[in-house]
Each structure stands twice: as structure tokens, then as C-alpha cells.
Amino acid sequence: MTDAAARPSPFFHERVLWVRHWTDSLFSFATTRNEAFRFRSGEFVMIGLPPAEGEKPILRAYSIASPMWAEELEFYSIKVPDGPLTSKLQMIQPGDEILVGKKPTGTLVLDALKGGERLFLIGSGTGLAPWLSVARDPDTWSRFGQVIVVHSVRNVADLAYRELFESGLADDPLVGDEAPGRLVYYPTVTREPFRTQGRITERIRSGELFRDLGMQGCFDPARDRVMLCGSMAMIKETAELIEACGLKEGSNAEPGDYVLERAFVG
Length: 266
Ligand SMILES: Cc1cc2nc3c(=O)[nH]c(=O)nc-3n(C[C@H](O)[C@H](O)[C@H](O)COP(=O)(O)OP(=O)(O)OC[C@H]3O[C@@H](n4cnc5c(N)ncnc54)[C@H](O)[C@@H]3O)c2cc1C
Ligand SMILES: NC(=O)c1ccc[n+]([C@@H]2O[C@H](COP(=O)([O-])OP(=O)(O)OC[C@H]3O[C@@H](n4cnc5c(N)ncnc54)[C@H](OP(=O)(O)O)[C@@H]3O)[C@@H](O)[C@H]2O)c1
Known about the structure:
The chain has about 270 residues and is an alpha/beta fold. About 20% of the residues lie in helices and about 30% in strands. The chain folds into 2 domains: about 5-100, Beta Barrel (Elongation Factor Tu (Ef-tu), domain 3); about 110-260, Nucleotide-binding domain of ferredoxin-NADP reductase (FNR) module (Rossmann fold), CATH 3.40.50.80.
């Protein structure tokens, strides 16, 4: 036996259970979950496809979109036409194999936030993925009275999971009793007409977000906690606006008022 064969694999070898294509550039899928795989809702993990003989797998970071208590692992993905991973990943079918790294990590976790009353989950594009995990975790609802999911996208068709959030998560097996009436879904669309239009940064700056939610014109450090996920530019600008309201960034080591993570390099 060679050394390589004796070494334990750094991956769990999972099977695709279902695939849902939302648009030409967005899809979701779920896989089986190894019993030994533990993660905290909101964390990300490296995933990939099994490589050809003698090659190394192409791995990319993915937020786990399912909560830590779920039996399946769910992912929400972009399709980059010439992307090394997603040009192939978008073709997966039920039964196909997916490599899932054994070391999930990340800062978009409840542990990195101090207690509060309202939790804002702000994401652009596929930056919605970690909120699918956090919002479907019962611990979120025992720690916060209200959860506001803000999803900023280019086109209305990019509002994946819209029905799930518009239903208040009423059919969810884990939080279906707690979330309805306490979940606020706040989608914004930037490149075509919609009831709430414009970048989330603009809606915070103008105070529209707060007016729409019946709040005073800023995040309140005494009550509000925020998680941010999306492109680098969106996160940077939004974090500046949040800091201007007096909220302080948190981490796993030192919980704070808000946390952030970029969903892709760009
Ligand atoms: C911590 C972390 C978590 C992530 N979680 C997710 C996730 O849950 N879902 C997901 O789809 N991607 C996620 N990504 C991005 C992901 O790792 C890959 O970049 C993506 O799957 C594309 O891989 P690729 O090999 O096809 O193309 P890459 O070579 O990785 O990317 C090519 C280009 O496509 C653009 N791009 C890549 N990913 C995205 C994206 N998600 N949205 C918009 N533009 C993008 C960027 O301009 C990038 O330079 C995450 C990245 C990080 C760092
Ligand atoms: N329908 C589509 O064709 C489609 C859908 C998804 C992804 N894609 C492809 O995927 C890539 C990334 O697109 P994406 O839509 O997922 O991500 P994205 O470009 O980050 O856009 C997502 C949302 O974030 C907003 N945004 C961008 N920069 C911001 C900033 N600095 N502050 C505040 N908000 C900001 C965008 O507004 P603006 O519109 O004002 O930029 C948009 O509403 C692109 O290459 C795109 O071609 C295409």
C-alpha cells in the first residue's frame, strides 16, 4: 500500500440528491450528509467534483445553505460559463458524486454575534446562501425576536428562494412554528422595475430600508445585529454604513454587533 492510499481522505464522498435550476446563471442542489460531518449554520466548506485519474480536484469555497440540524447538505450556486468548477458543476444530476471538505469554517455564525433583538441577514447574489442556513436554524429564533432577510439582486428572476421566504418559512420542518410572523423578507432589484428597487447601500443611505421596516433611520447598536455576505464591493460599502451607525465587527474569538464574509472574489 502506498503512503497516499494509507492517508485518510480529506473529503466526504457525497451523492447528489436533487438539483434545481433557477435561471441560466443560478442553481441549487443537495447532497447526502456523512454522519461525521459537523458544521455550524452559516459556515462554508470546500467542495468539488471527483477528478479524473491522476488529477487533483478543483475545489471552491461554498456556504452550506442547509442548517446544521438538517440531514441533507444544500448548496446555492452561480454558473460561471468558463468557471473551472461551475462550468462542470452546473451539469450534475442526482446520483453524481460530490467531494465535501472535512473542515467547515467561517464567521457568519451566531457565535460571532452578541445577543440582540433583531437580526439582519444582508446578502447580494449568491450571498443569500448562508442565510438559508441561519434562517432555518431553530437557535436563530431562540436568540432573536425578529429576522430580516435582505436579498439584493440584478433581476427579479435572480430572487431565488423568494417563495420560501415569502411564505415566512411556514412549511419548514425545523422552524415552521417559530419563523412565521417574525421573519421579514426584504428583496431589492437593481436592473429592472420592482417594488423595492436600488442597491441595498442606497436604501440604507437614503433611510428607505428603515422607513419600510418601521424603524428609526439607522441600525441600533443596542438592538440590531447584522450579518453581511456578497461581493467585496457590496460588503465594504455596507460595512462602512453599519459602522457609521455605531455597530462593531465581531469574530469567533470576540463576538460583536456585525460579521461579514465575501461570497466570491470580485
Ligand atoms: C467564503 C466563500 C464562500 C462562497 N460561497 C459560495 C456559494 O455559496 N455559492 C456560490 O455560488 N459561490 C460561492 N463562492 C464562490 C465560489 O468559491 C466560486 O468562486 C464559484 O463557485 C465559481 O467557481 P468557478 O471555479 O466556476 O469560477 P472562479 O474561477 O472561482 O470564478 C470566476 C469569476 O466568477 C465570478 N464569481 C465567482 N463566484 C461567484 C458568485 N458566487 N457570484 C457571482 N460571481 C461569482 C468572480 O468574478 C470570479 O472571479 C464562495 C467563495 C468564498 C470565498
Ligand atoms: N441575470 C443574470 O444575467 C445574472 C444573474 C446572476 C449572476 N450573473 C453573473 O454573475 C456575476 C455576478 O453577478 P451577481 O448578480 O451574482 O452579483 P453582483 O454583481 O454582486 O450583483 C448582485 C447585487 O449586488 C449589487 N451590488 C453590486 N455591487 C454593489 C455595491 N458596491 N454595493 C451595493 N450593492 C452592490 C448589484 O447591483 P447593480 O446591479 O447595481 O450592480 C446587484 O443588485 C456577473 O458576472 C453576472 O454576469 C448574471
